[in-house]
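Hi W.,

Here's what went into the run:
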Amino acid sequence: MTGRNMNLDHDIELFRSMYLIRRFEERAAHLRQQGFIPGFLHPYVGQEAVAVGVCAALEEGDVITSTHRGHGHMLARGAEPNRMYAELYARQDGYNRAKGGSLHMIDAELGFLGANGIVGGGIPLATGAALQKKREGKKRVAVSFFGDGATNEGSFHESLNLSALWLLPVVFVCENNFYGEFTPQHKHQPITEIARRADSYAMEVVVEGNYVLEVRKAAQEAVDRARAGEGPTLIEARTYRHRGHYEGDMARYRPPGELEEWMARDPLVVFAKHLRDRGVDDSVLREVRQAVEDRLDGAARFAEQSPHPQPGEALEDVYTETHQGMALR
Amino acid sequence: MRKLRYGAAIAEALAEEMERDPEVFLIGEDIGEAGGVFGVTRGLFKKFGPDRVFDTPISEEAIVGAAVGAALVGARPVVEVMFGDFVTLAMDMLVNQAAKTSYMTGGRIGVPVTVRMVTGTAGSTAGQHSQSLEAWFVHTPGLKVVAPSNAADAKGLVKAAIRDPDPVMVFEHKLLYGRSDQVPDQVDPLPLGEGRVVREGEDVTVVSYLHTLYAALEAAERLEEEGISVEVLDPRSLVPFDRRLLSDSLRKTGRLLVAHEAPRRGGVGAEIAAIAAEEMWDLLGAPITRVCGANTPMPYAPELEGFVIPDAARIAEGIRATVKGSPGRLTPV
Ligand SMILES: Cc1ncc(C[n+]2csc(CCOP(=O)(O)OP(=O)(O)O)c2C)c(N)n1
Ligand SMILES: [Mg+2]
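Here's what came out:
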């Protein structure tokens, strides 16, 4: 295969990954409506290029932390949709054995250190993971995803300062979707370019977060810098969530026309066009889409067939060890 | 009298206090234009405007700290912490700052701040959105803690909290927002530290609060058919705690069970049990029982969630054992 084709194959995989996230989320919203999924869902629809672009720059041994809107990051890191759906369905085969749900999904083996129910909660954790990676000396990096709203938390500022001071191998990826819950950015912070918050800490980059290749390029540079021991980077990826803050939020606080404007820059549409322009046949993309649908069909079936947890399991795992022969709690 | 929802009663308390005292203001995340994630402050932004109802960035320490700081110099702020779980991000401002001020200034400076938060478990919101953290604040000298279980009490207690010269933490259970109660047309502040006999009985006293109170009442109904007469007390305030109400009841029943949703270990039930054991031992004729949440984080799956929090059946089992004098044989969940 020629180099050019290999690149194109790579890019088709980026499309596959983005499409997987899109459909995973849309189906999850539907399954929740049908009563299969309890609890909260914060859909990632619209922001796929950020997770996929950043994770494309990562290698085995790198780690990421995520947010309440975490399914996309987890899938982009390579998680299994069947175990993710099983968790959302609150079944035994779920990633957290039905104890976590959407807000807390985690797979440390994949280097996915968890979604998080606490805004800003993952940022110090990524900082600490980067500290450990640096101690190990293996040139591995930590990436923290978080939203525009999270940059108003102390944890954000404290983590940037510490990691810049210690030149930690960490990449902070702020997904600026211009809303924290129902509050637009201009009502929650006095700046528009969040990247400027890194002025006093480290290097900053702003990218159009809906172009997956641009995101990947920015992430690659930041990751390279981190691996070389040159310290952290703050990437501001400008993007938009198409759905409400959580499933059930009608998003009435949006000004008219705003969603439509962003829909025209839908990361999947934009990238599909890019691929077509480069000569990828429509039938190739159709096949990718069909394969994703088939995979998700299987994942939902897997979740539905997975056993419910036994009530007594609620009392297990509070600690990793037993005490005097009994589960400690 | 009229029917009023729990959340609407709190909104009325806020509005009436804001009208009465210009120093009262509201501050919190998405409480203004959006009206709060649970809709409690809906309409107040429109009514009082952005100088009295502050929508904030997601910055819990700064929000609570700003309220405490404003209270130091004359304001009577009311903070909404959305999910009470997020109060962890503001603990310094509450525990090291607000709680200590009166004491460390020899009583010269009070901090008349009110902190409202949503507490408890409902609908699989899992480990970081369903905790019951009241015991931490009960444990912190300098803070007062209230936990209203119905709309009328909620209105009275929130008014009292706002007028109180000290910091008051208000716990509002998620599942109570949906309930309606008869509420008098005019509600005066309900003095902190006055509990209530919710149901009279002879054989055993059950102390419970917030949503678990209703499980206790259901258990009491069931046991009536078995010939066990249960008295149910709602302390309403956890700090200050109505000792007289408890001792008056124990004088009659001689038996005590405490029920709450928060984990058993170090919970409010432990404190109430200790008060009874230390100060009212002569009134007790049986060992004290606690029926509480399990010592676990809150799980996600509905069947696990239901298992770790006490329900009427489990409280009834506890009451039977207490009446038999053998609560030691209960399996603590
Ligand atoms: C500490 C904390 N405060 C508040 C919340 C409630 N909350 C959940 S998501 C959210 C908005 C977060 O906005 P942003 O960081 O921009 O992320 P986005 O939802 O846009 O992805 C808020 C306020 C929370 N979960 N944790
Ligand atoms: Mg946002």
